[in-house]
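Sequence design from tokenized structure. All designs in this work follow the same two-part layout: the structure record, then the generated sequence. An example of the structure record is given first.
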């Protein structure tokens, strides 16, 4: 198990001969911008309909006057995204349930020490996540995943809570993949205040502009910062410096004298990639995902907004119509409640609406409801609601579980996408826990093994519930057969192994259970105690029978002594 340091920052940058010059970093950033700009218009469109004000496509959008939300005429898309995030939170990472378990990869032997160690690691990771801001950050990332098809979280070490997580705004980052399709390069651009820049990187590492603003107490002036994370070209496995770790981490200013002077804010490194990107499916070797629930719902959402506008126009015509009538009544016409407009007796025309509302107008409301449902279904709102809305009625509990499992199986691809992101995050978190000394030494049997994280989704729990109910029915059947037919048939079932499986399906903490070896030792001790008690009972019965014989022959030997006292019974 790896327990190496995740990141060690240096306070001053002196290596100016590094391959990571500012000009090189800017060239790589420009190449990533070129790829991202192909999908940028679509992402901006999605943002305006589903997550307004939730993106930062330009760094200078920070702390600026908020734009008006003009395209959203109905809140259905916003609620659909919210329900999508809540549904994933409940199904894939609910803090109220055990949604993951630490296991040892490719280790199938039954060992109580190993199981106890894995249970401890599981509980430890749960405590770290609960004490951090993970459960506040991940729902926001789910929204990005549903709308854009991808979302990113940054993990960093925290002094008080071990770990801290940040959602990276859409549009502020770019990434690329290696030959295996794994994301290994991440470039983020954001604005930071002078105070925070100096506090994080030190006054000696900032540009002259930042230093001048700081000295003149202009602490809230904003500057663009780029965080560059990629495989380290200067990687040295045995080096002790953070800058030579497997993954390089570089911060530098954009658009200041630091660019000309080739000055970096910091150069450090990680053992494991600290950005976790949650993605939907990609087409071929594309860098960015090509499909999402937001893309699926975009056309329906546009239609919905147009229909809402048309309905509003129709309603306005009904309650505030345009009128026609005699010209001499033009200045006398009023729509105030209780008002009276006199019409001449010889008038040939009366005051009436110019156009009549067609009888089919009311059907547009039904069409709007259908379109709303289409938008909600694109974000799986109907499937997420199955858990709450499935009524038992005349069905048995088994039939209800089967129905839920059938419907929830449609969520399996989505949950797999989520767990791919969770897996990278949990591996990083485990290494961080090892680094700070929270993980105990593993048993010798698994010293050369790798930790694996198994996830328990709503779909998985539904399937496990079916297994549990099936085992309970079989156990009842076996006991009835043994009771009514032949008691020896009870040995057909391996009860200890069955109880292990039952606890595994029910996600029972293994630290609460004795190992099979301990159970066998307890059973042997009980058998020995029972045998000893039986032998003592037999001996006492034999002595009792002997005393009866003595009494029958008079109770004395040939010398007249008491036989019971000589035997130690009387």
């Amino acid at each position: 198990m790896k327990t190496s340091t995740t990141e060690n920052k240096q306070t001053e940058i002196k290596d100016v001969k590094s391959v990571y010059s500012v000009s090189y970093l800017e060239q790589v950033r420009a190449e990533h911008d070129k790829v991202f700009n192909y999908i940028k218009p679509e992402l901006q469109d999605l943002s305006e309909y589903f997550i307004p004000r939730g993106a930062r496509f330009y760094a200078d959008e920070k702390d600026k006057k908020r734009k008006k939300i003009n395209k959203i005429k109905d809140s259905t898309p916003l609620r659909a995204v919210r329900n999508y995030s809540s549904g994933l939170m409940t199904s894939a990472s609910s803090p109220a349930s055990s949604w993951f378990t630490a296991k040892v990869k490719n280790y199938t032997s039954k060992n109580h020490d190993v199981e106890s160690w894995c249970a401890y690691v599981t509980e430890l990771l749960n405590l770290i996540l609960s004490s951090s801001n993970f459960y506040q950050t991940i729902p926001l990332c789910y929204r990005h995943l549903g709308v854009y098809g991808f979302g990113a979280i940054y993990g960093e070490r925290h002094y008080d809570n071990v770990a801290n997580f940040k959602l990276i705004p859409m549009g502020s980052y770019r990434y690329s993949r290696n030959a295996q399709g794994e994301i290994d390069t991440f470039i983020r651009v954001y604005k930071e205040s002078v105070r925070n820049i100096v506090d994080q990187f030190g006054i000696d590492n900032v540009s002259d502009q930042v230093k001048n603003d700081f000295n003149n107490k202009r602490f809230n002036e904003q500057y663009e910062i780029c965080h560059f994370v990629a495989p380290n070209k200067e990687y040295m496995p045995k080096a002790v410096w953070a800058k030579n770790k497997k993954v390089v981490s570089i911060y530098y200013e954009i658009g200041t004298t630091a660019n000309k002077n080739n000055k970096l804010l910091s150069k450090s490194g990680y053992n494991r990639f600290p950005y976790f990107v949650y993605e939907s499916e990609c087409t071929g070797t594309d860098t960015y995902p090509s499909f999402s629930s937001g893309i699926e719902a975009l056309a329906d959402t546009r239609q919905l907004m147009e229909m809402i506008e048309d309905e509003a126009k129709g309603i306005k015509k009904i309650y505030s119509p345009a009128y026609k009538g005699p010209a001499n009544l033009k200045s006398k016409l009023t729509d105030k409640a209780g008002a009276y407009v006199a019409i001449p007796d010889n008038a040939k025309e009366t005051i009436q609406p110019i156009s009549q509302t067609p009888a089919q107008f009311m059907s547009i409301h039904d069409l709007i409801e259908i379109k709303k449902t289409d938008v909600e279904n694109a974000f799986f709102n109907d499937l997420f609601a199955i858990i709450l809305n499935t009524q038992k009625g005349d069905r048995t509990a088994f039939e209800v579980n089967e129905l839920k499992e059938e419907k929830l199986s449609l969520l399996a691809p989505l949950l797999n996408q989520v767990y791919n992101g969770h897996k990278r995050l949990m591996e990083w978190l485990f290494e961080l826990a090892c680094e700070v000394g929270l993980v105990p030494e593993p048993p010798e049997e698994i010293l050369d093994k790798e930790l694996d994280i198994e996830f328990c989704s709503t779909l998985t729990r539904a399937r496990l519930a079916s297994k549990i109910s099936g085992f309970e029915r079989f156990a009842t059947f076996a006991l009835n057969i043994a009771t009514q037919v032949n008691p020896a048939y009870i040995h057909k079932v391996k009860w200890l192994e069955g109880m292990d499986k039952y606890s595994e399906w029910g996600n029972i903490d293994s630290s609460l259970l004795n190992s099979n070896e301990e159970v066998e030792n307890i059973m042997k001790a009980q058998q020995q105690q029972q045998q000893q008690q039986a032998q003592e009972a037999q001996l006492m019965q034999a002595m009792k029978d002997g005393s009866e014989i003595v009494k029958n022959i008079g109770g004395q030997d040939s010398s007249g002594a008491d036989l019971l006292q000589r035997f130690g019974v009387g």
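Residues 253 and 412 are 43 Å apart (CA to CA). We note this feature because it recurs in several other targets discussed in the main text.
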